Amino acid sequence: MDIFAKNGYNMNTMSSKNRKKQKDRQMTFRMLTLITQFGINMLVPIFLCFFAGRFLDQKLGTSYLMIVFFFVGALAGFRNIYIFARKMTDGTEDDSPHQKNKNDDQKNS
Q: Pick from 34, 42, 64, 94: most CB atoms within 10 A?
């Protein structure tokens, strides 16, 4: 007699519990990666543009390019977030022009 059956455990129940735990872990990690991607998609363009503006300010002797580039980076970050969120809600993997052309060709056929 199996030790689990002796104690009243059902192996099918345990494996379904383990599968549920595994799915919960996967979902948790997926959500954490989504949050991380949102942050990276927003912050990288801001920092790159900020430091590019600062560098240009130092080289050209100006004092306003850093601010202008910061806002350009913020706009680029918002655009990245918008595209990323659209991909997540639409369930599409690629929004490239090639993908759109393939979809158009399939619709026309």
A: 42
Cβ partners under 8 Å of residue 64, min gap 6: 57
DSSP secondary structure letters along 80-104: HHHHHHHHHHHT-S--SHHHHHHHH
Residue 94 CA, chain-centre distance (Å), reads 13
Mean pLDDT of 21-27: 88
Alpha-carbon gap, residue 88 to 91, rounded angstroms: 5
For the stretch 48-86, pLDDT in tens is 999 999 999 999 999 999 999 999 999 999 999 999 999
At which residue do the structure tokens 């383990």 appear? Answer: 18
Q: At what angle do helices 11-60 and 65-90 cross, to 10 degrees?
A: 160
Intra-chain end-to-end CA distance of the chain, in Å: 62
